[in-house]
């Protein structure tokens, strides 16, 4: 099948790499977000998808707003005879004139079991809510975000130690396993699909800056879920000795006290440190980042800051 690929971040790049290995699938061009400034130099760098596309000598198109630039986009994309557009974490909503252009339309890979968690942050939100099951939905693109008919769903287990990075990897691999068989072999019509039950729809939004502030009065499992939802890219933070402390990785432990002092730190041994949450239970700290420092293990944190049972997170 002849396809075009729309995507931007690293998970999209992994899917594109997998598609390029398939002799029965011909990727004709790629659409990705514009190069963005990165690092202290603020030098614009290409997206992971663009890097893969250039390495494969594929034509690459980039638009600040594909909706506003749809006429130019249509002129460029119509030069190719792609039968299907494949979209995975592109980062912008495609206008109808574009997603309906190819013979078999356009399909989207969404990181949840639709109609649950339509929106911008399904992977993070599934962890935030403590889901034990998630997955990827392959759907037809429509005019309303994530409401298109479902072609296929592939479920994955969510483990208690998963964070957004590891769960996204599971979902990406599930997407690869589900999508490639769909695209192989002859096709004369669009993929069969089942309409979503809109009455069961739930929604999620982008993670906001205020979502990173950790409420230590929450239960241990609620705090653990928020910390792993924000890791490994954003990080949830509290205060320690009047400075910001980012918590990157925690682990629930079978330890509690009847007297409740949220944020109270307790040394278990030379390499183990726990803190109390709002339900009296504790979380073990595995990775932190004090203000103006690099990420570090809890052992390095304990040694460098000489942590005592009098210390606490705020």
Structure characterization notes:
This protein is α/β, with parallel strands linked by helices. The protein folds into 2 domains: about 200 residues, Formyl transferase, N-terminal domain (Rossmann fold); about 100 residues, Methionyl-tRNA Fmet Formyltransferase, Chain A, domain 2. Helices cover about 25% and strands about 30% of the residues. It contains 8 helices and 17 strands. The strands form 4 sheets. A 7-stranded mixed β-sheet has the order 5-2-1-6-7-9-10, sandwiched between helices. β3 and β4 form a beta hairpin. The mean pLDDT is about 95. GO terms for molecular function: methionyl-tRNA formyltransferase activity. Keywords: Protein biosynthesis, Transferase. It comes from Leptospira saintgironsiae. It is an enzyme of class 2 (transferase).
Walk across the major sheet and give the strand order. Answer: 5-2-1-6-7-9-10
**Tally of structural domains:** 2
Number of helices: 8
Cα-atom radius of gyration: 22 Å
Low-confidence stretches: none
Q: How many beta-strand runs?
A: 17
Q: In brief, what are we looking at here?
A:
This protein has 314 residues and is an alpha/beta fold. The protein has helices at residues 10-20, 48-55, 70-77, 96-99, 122-128, 164-183, 220-230, 298-305, and strands spanning 2-7, 26-32, 36-38, 43-45, 60-62, 84-88, 106-110, 118-119, 133-140, 150-157, 203-204, 236-240, 243-256, 265-269, 272-276, 281-290, 296-297. The strands form 4 sheets. The protein has a 7-stranded mixed beta sheet, with helices on both faces. Strands 12, 13, 14, 15, 16 and 17 form a 6-stranded antiparallel beta sheet that branches.
